[in-house]
Amino acid sequence: MKIYPVEAGNFKLDGGAMFGVVPKSLWQKTNPADADNLIDIAARCLLVETSGKLILVDTGMGNKQSDKFFSYYKRWGNHTLEKSITSLGFGLNDITDVFLTHLHFDHVGGATISNKSTSLIEPLFNQAIYWTNKLHWEWATRPNAREKASFLSENLLPLQQSGQLDFLDIAAKNYSMDTQLPFSICFIDGHTEKQMLPILQYQNKTIVFMGDLLPTAGHIPLPYIMGYDTRPLLTLNEKAEFLTKAADNNWYLFLEHDAHNEIITVEHTEKGVRLKNTYTFNELFNA
Ligand SMILES: [Zn+2]
Known about the structure:
Elements: E1 2-7, E2 11-14, H1 15-19, H2 24-27, E3 38-41, E4 44-50, E5 53-57, H3 67-71, H4 81-87, E6 97-99, H5 105-108, E7 112-114, E8 121-123, E9 129-133, H6 134-141, H7 153-161, E10 165-168, E11 176-177, E12 184-188, E13 195-202, E14 205-209, H8 232-248, E15 252-254, E16 263-269, E17 272-279, H9 281-285
Parallel strand pairs: 5-6, 6-9, 9-10, 14-15
Antiparallel strand pairs: 1-4, 2-3, 4-5, 7-8, 11-12, 12-13, 13-14, 15-16, 16-17
The structure holds zinc ion.
């Protein structure tokens, strides 16, 4: 197996919304805000190459929305999903599977493009199966009013209409190996219904793709929970359980949304679980 980080394009989000009840005087120490109170956010996806499969985990927000839509998210830097994949030497049609942690626009938007000649929205990866799970799909396609702005039908329905959508088994035991993909899956319900986080064994390390359970290193203290989470008290419990396991077992946490820390480890301290080390992907795996 070989894995690669894939930067799908940075953006910015409101710092207050990213830290829920935590005051700015505290969160700005780790995640400094600009004059508009926005903080740096990455869309760092993961590519997993095994014999016979090339699996992309998440896709960023893509580029098919309107200029008005993107004006809210202040995209910055030069990364795009397509450029990042092709710069690794892969073609878009080499992708066999797209694993979607959940269907919020900043995770699934890059899975589809607007066809310039027909204006139809179609999958970017023609040969891929797109994986979600049934409970999350139902949650996303009949959204509650609070999450509605994150579940955009133009990101979801074209995947179904193309016949490329499939559902992973949610009856599978949490943290157990999936039968169709070369990694375990952790199901997390606090951010949204049945978010799925891959857990990989790679070069004698356990790597967890953190999705929106731990968007940035600044979110390690338990109450530092995004205002976007639908069930914050459940996130609190899920984070506590997860971070204890991560510190006990020295797991390497791959941060999807942290623009400045790619991979971190955590440790037990008197104050609870805290940051131990931060690594770039290259120093950890390509040194
Ligand atoms: Zn997100």
